[in-house]
Amino acid sequence: MKKSVLLSISLILVTLIFVILTNGCTSLFTPLIKIEIMQMLNKLGEANVEGNVDQIVIHYTDPYSQVNHLVSEDVYVISLEELRMGLEEDLTYYNCLIDDFSNEEITILDTSNAIVECDEHAKFQDLLDETIYESIDRVKITLIKVDGNWKISIYELLASEEVI
């Protein structure tokens, strides 16, 4: 190889090493991690619309924590079995028509920890009287990567706006 090609390769490697040392390896993978996270949230939304309890619960750690900041700062620790039972009960009364996530602000803490603050648009139909409820909730979701999959470890409701 010519010296100029070797010099160019050496310069690229030095730059890459400098970027890794100053920013950490995570910054190189941030765009991919954000795509993985949004794909996980989209799959969760699809599972909610399908009413597929098994596909919903796989997106949570066991246990996970839940905080409704509109009511209190109390943290509720919920097992997957409790989540499953609550979902099954809800599905007897409500049909989820829409559940999607948007306006996301994703903070990557490292390759296996992230925080997402986003809007969750949910639309439900009461199966008894067919009333439709729709809201856009601002949520903060703490995620951890378990066995290669992103899972919700903390779900926080920050704000809620009813859609009329």
UniProtKB/TrEMBL annotation:
Organism, scientific name: Candidatus Sediminicultor quintus
InterPro entries in the record: NTF2-like_dom_sf (IPR032710)
SUPFAM superfamilies linked: NTF2-like
Protein name: SnoaL-like domain-containing protein
